[in-house]
Design goal:
CATH topology: Pnp Oxidase, Chain A
CATH superfamily: Electron Transport, Fmn-binding Protein, Chain A
Shape: globular
Number of domains: 1
Distance between the termini: 23 Å
CATH architecture: Roll
CATH class: Mainly Beta
Low-confidence stretches: 141-151
Structural class: alpha+beta
Mean pLDDT: 87
Helix content: 25-40%
Order of helices and strands: EHEEEEHEEHHEHE
Number of helices: 5
Strand content: 35-45%
Length: 168
C-alpha cells in the first residue's frame, strides 16, 4: 500500500467528499474525553464546498448534549465491499437552519422525525474536519484480494492501494 499525504486544501476536500459521500454512513462519536465514546451510526447529508460534513440530528439525543459540552467528534467511515475507509477528527457546530433541513429532507429521514420537517427537535450538525486518515484500493475488493494472493506467493505487481493523512 502506497503512502500519500494530501496537504492542499482543494485536494483534501475532494478526497473527503469522495469518501464520506461515497460511503455515506459512519459511526459518529462524541464525548471523546470519557471512553467508551458515545457512538451512533449516522448518514451524511452533504460534504459542502468548504469540506464541512452535514448531518441531521435530534435535540433529544445524547450526541446533541455531548456536542454542547465538547465540540470534538470522531467519524469512522467503512465500506468493506469497496475496501474504502476514512477516520476523521473534527469539531461540530450545532446549526438551526430550516432551509438546510428542507434541502436534506427525504423519506428515509422522515422515519426518524414523526412530526415532519418542521419538528422543533430537528437540528443540524456541521462537522469541520481537522485531521483525517484514509485507506483506499485502486480496484474493487475481488481484484484486490487476487493481487494480494499473487504478491504473497512471490508475484511482483505494482502497489494496489493507497493510504494517507488528509490535512485540511
Amino acid at each position: 500500500m502506497s503512502q500519500e499525504n494530501i496537504n492542499q486544501r482543494e485536494e483534501a476536500i475532494k478526497k473527503i467528499k469522495e469518501l464520506a459521500e461515497g460511503i455515506n454512513f459512519c459511526f459518529f462519536c462524541t464525548d471523546l474525553n470519557h471512553p467508551p465514546f458515545e457512538s451512533t451510526p449516522m448518514s451524511v447529508q452533504e460534504v459542502d464546498d468548504q469540506g464541512n460534513i452535514w448531518f441531521l440530528a435530534s435535540k433529544d439525543s445524547d450526541k446533541y448534549r455531548n456536542i454542547k459540552l465538547n465540540k470534538q467528534v470522531h467519524l469512522y467511515f467503512s465500506d468493506p465491499s469497496s475496501m474504502k475507509y476514512l477516520s476523521l477528527f473534527g469539531n461540530a457546530d450545532i446549526v438551526d437552519d430550516q432551509s438546510r433541513i428542507d434541502k436534506y429532507w427525504n423519506k428515509f429521514v422522515e422515519g426518524w422525525f414523526e412530526k415532519g420537517r418542521t419538528d422543533p427537535n430537528i437540528i443540524l450538525f456541521k462537522i469541520k474536519p481537522e485531521h483525517a486518515h484514509y485507506w483506499d484500493t485502486k480496484h474493487h475488493k475481488l481484484i484486490s484480494y487476487a493481487i494480494t494472493l499473487i504478491k504473497s506467493v512471490g508475484g511482483d505487481l505494482e502497489d494496489q492501494g493507497r493510504e494517507g493523512q488528509i490535512h485540511i
